[in-house]
Each structure stands twice: as structure tokens, then as C-alpha cells.
Specification:
This protein is an alpha+beta fold and about 150 residues long. The chain has three helices and eight strands. The chain has helices spanning about 25-30, 35-40, 125-150; strands at about 1-5, 10-20, 45-55, 55-65, 70-75, 80-90, 90-100, 105-115. Helix 1 packs across helix 3 (about 125-150). The longest helix is centred in the last third of the chain and has 26 residues, at about 125-150. It is globular, with a radius of gyration of 15 Å. The mean pLDDT is about 90.
Length: about 150
């Protein structure tokens, strides 16, 4: 299940939800491993952690779109939510990951609330489509990993 909303042609809200037949603890272990993000999120080419303070990470990510660099402030709220704020780069806004479930099944949801900066604003609809597709692919990969870990 997914939704993409384009607001004012320069802002996008993208929501993707994936049911997973695995314990929520298993899913949390996968999504909260921030350094492993490029393994699942093909739109993230690389990560360079700048600083870490407990459950807060300040980092630079290189995204697949023209190898652009973005600065993120990521906060983990164990065991069920991650908030990634895009604070510098072509993407402004946030990506929220929510893990909900129990020992049997989990619902993993990702919501992007973003705006593109500069001249990239005119490509919001196209880039939102790429982000939505990438998010569906990432959640499918996370699902496969989590369900494989339970067998």
C-alpha cells in the first residue's frame, strides 16, 4: 500500500506501508542499523557519519540522484520509530520510519514529507515518483531480510 501526494507542486508527501511476517524486534534490528541503509535503500549510495550522540546521528548521505550530498539529523526512538531530518542539500524535510507489531507480525511504514530546493523544485513530481518506487523496493528488501531471519 502506498500513497504519493504532491502539494503545491514543490512539496511531496509519500507514504508506503509493508506488512511483514516477522517479529517487530527483528524488523527494528534491521531498520535501526543506520550504517547498513545503502544495502536496502538503493537511493542512498553512501553514508558518512559526522557525529553521534546516543540515539542521534548527524551524517552526510550521498543519494543516487546525480551523486548529490545531503545532511541529515537522524534520531532513533527505540523500538519503533526513526526520524531523519534533511537539513541541507537538494532535499528538505523528513523521512519517518515506524515499526509496529508484536512477536508474530509487523507493519513497517515510511512517510516522506519533503520539498526540493532550488531549481530541483520543478522536478518534484518526477523525483517523488522515484522516491516512492525506491521506498517500495527498500521495504520489500527489508521484508525479505526479516522474514528470512525468522525461518
Amino acid at each position: 500500500m502506498y500513497d504519493v501526494y504532491i502539494i503545491h507542486l514543490t512539496m511531496a508527501v509519500i507514504n508506503v506501508v509493508m506488512p511483514i511476517r516477522a517479529p517487530s524486534e527483528t524488523v527494528w534490528e534491521i531498520v535501526s542499523d543506520l550504517d547498513a541503509e545503502p544495502k536496502f535503500w538503493k537511493g542512498t549510495k553512501s553514508i558518512r557519519n559526522i557525529s553521534k550522540d546516543g540515539d542521534r546521528v548527524h551524517r552526510e548521505i550521498t543519494i543516487a540522484f546525480r551523486d548529490q550530498k545531503c545532511i541529515q539529523d537522524v534520531t532513533l526512538y527505540p523500538p519503533n520509530r526513526i526520524d531523519a531530518q534533511f537539513v541541507k542539500g537538494i532535499i528538505k524535510g523528513n523521512k519517518e520510519i515506524v515499526v509496529a507489531g508484536d512477536e508474530q507480525a509487523t507493519t513497517l511504514s515510511v512517510t516522506w514529507n519533503i520539498e526540493l530546493s532550488g531549481m530541483m523544485k520543478m522536478f518534484t513530481k518526477m523525483i517523488a515518483g522515484h522516491i516512492e518506487n525506491g521506498t517500495r523496493q527498500a521495504l520489500s528488501s527489508i521484508k525479505h531480510e526479516a522474514e528470512g531471519n525468522t525461518e
